[in-house]
Amino acid sequence: MYRVKLTEFEGPLDLLLFFIKRDELDITNIPISRITQEFLEYLHLMASLDLEVAGDFIVMAATLMQIKVRMLLPRDESAPDEEDPRAELVRRLIEYKRFKEMAQEFGSLEEEQRKIYYRRFFDADTTTVVEEEGEEFLKDISLFNLISAYKSALDQMPRKIIHEVQLMPVSVDEQMSFVLDYLRVHGPTTLLQLVAHMVEKIRIIVTVMALLELTKNKVIGLAAVEGREDIAIRPLNPLAPMALATP
């Protein structure tokens, strides 16, 4: 079994903050039923990509379900000052968010001090390497942005009324070659464009796994597409022209 291992893997609190930021939720008044459902759905999506899900995610899933059950139970009238079941989770999220923002601020200060490294990217129009100062292609993107775009890709896949049992021999290496060939021909693209003509779920899954592997090896760069559940894909170095790729 091919397994993708990520050196930097966001934790369960990062996933909750991702939901809160994406949907502009009040961190002190979390819709626990909705968040629990989405959290479990994302765990399922990560498992389908054969990502190694840390035990912390399983613990958080159990915690969310426990909070959800407690909120469904009748309130004890004899204890008017009974604490909201979400209170401890909210405290953890606020504290984690504060430390994360501090770390990001220190990181920005460090970048300002250095000012000596500039990311290189491929210009599809001129087929040259362009030096871009100050803007990183991987800015404001996390694993959960990719999972969200992956979910959108599955949602746009044509639905088959009749289920066919068919062996689909497709490997991560093959889809890595497909992605690189596609970029050579079409230039920078997005995940939804890349899989637009794919009708097999397994091919979309393996394509996303190929993107993870190419990103880990610093062959491509990814960025969140603002306002859409999609991911921008760009080669980090020039790619030689090749024959037209087919999904």
What's this model, at a glance?
With 247 residues, the chain is mainly alpha-helical.
What would you say this structure looks like, in words?
With 247 residues, the protein is mainly α. The chain has helices at 12-22, 32-48, 55-72, 87-114, 143-156, 172-186, 191-194, 201-216, and strands at 120-123, 128-131, 189-190, 220-224, 231-235. The chain folds into two domains: 1-116, no CATH class; 117-247, no CATH class. Strand 4 and strand 5 (231-235) form a beta hairpin. Helix 2 runs antiparallel to helix 3 and helix 6 (172-186) packs across helix 8 (201-216). The chain is globular, with a radius of gyration of 21 Å. The two termini are 22 Å apart.
The largest sheet has its strands arranged as 3-5-4
Spans where pLDDT lies below 50 across 5 or more residues: 1-9, 121-137, 240-246
Broad structural category: mainly alpha
Measured between the Cα atoms of the first and last residue, the distance is 22 Å
How much of the sequence lies in strands comes to 5-15%
Helix content: 40-55%
Rg over CA atoms, rounded to whole Å, is: 21 Å
H/E series, N to C? HHHHEEHHEHHEE
